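If you are new to this repository, start here. Below is one unmodified record pulled from the training split, so you can see the exact layout before writing a loader.
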Amino acid sequence: MPKLKIRTYPDPILKKKAAPVTDFGPAAQKLFDDMVETMHVSDGVGLAAPQIGISQQIFIACPTMKFGEEFVMINPVIEEKSGAAAGLEGCLSVPGISAEIIRYTKLTLSFQDRHGKKHNGSFEGFFARVIQHEIDHLNGLLLIDHFSGKKREELLAQYAKVKNPPKL
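And here is the target side for that same chain:
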């Protein structure tokens, strides 16, 4: 069972732009650890703070899904981006659906680590995709927000069936 409750669509906190983080004290360290545990227990490759009801610019990324290989990224800013590729994505906050989304294939990112130290890093491929998905969460965007019209309606109908399965 996840340590923290993952918020699902249409929870309003998922639509808010998250606030910058300035406190890296003991409470923040516990939050980071709890987020890492929740992401792993939920079989995720990423988890953003808004997904657990905290509107702050924090996300965990672990494309390998291996304990100990997580990145805690705080106050991230995409500095450079290039390339593009479509890829299938799912989301812990909209469980049961997936869709092809076009994302940049290479990123340069500035961010702070769990101790507030500033970093710049280059990320490619699936890791770059995970980062962009989590940054979407920090900006109040969900997987379904990449679509409009009929495709969005189809995804929402699929999600409704998952969220409210028929009684047998």
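Two things worth knowing about this chain: The mean pLDDT is 96. The domain at 12-163 is CATH 3.90.45.10 (Peptide Deformylase).
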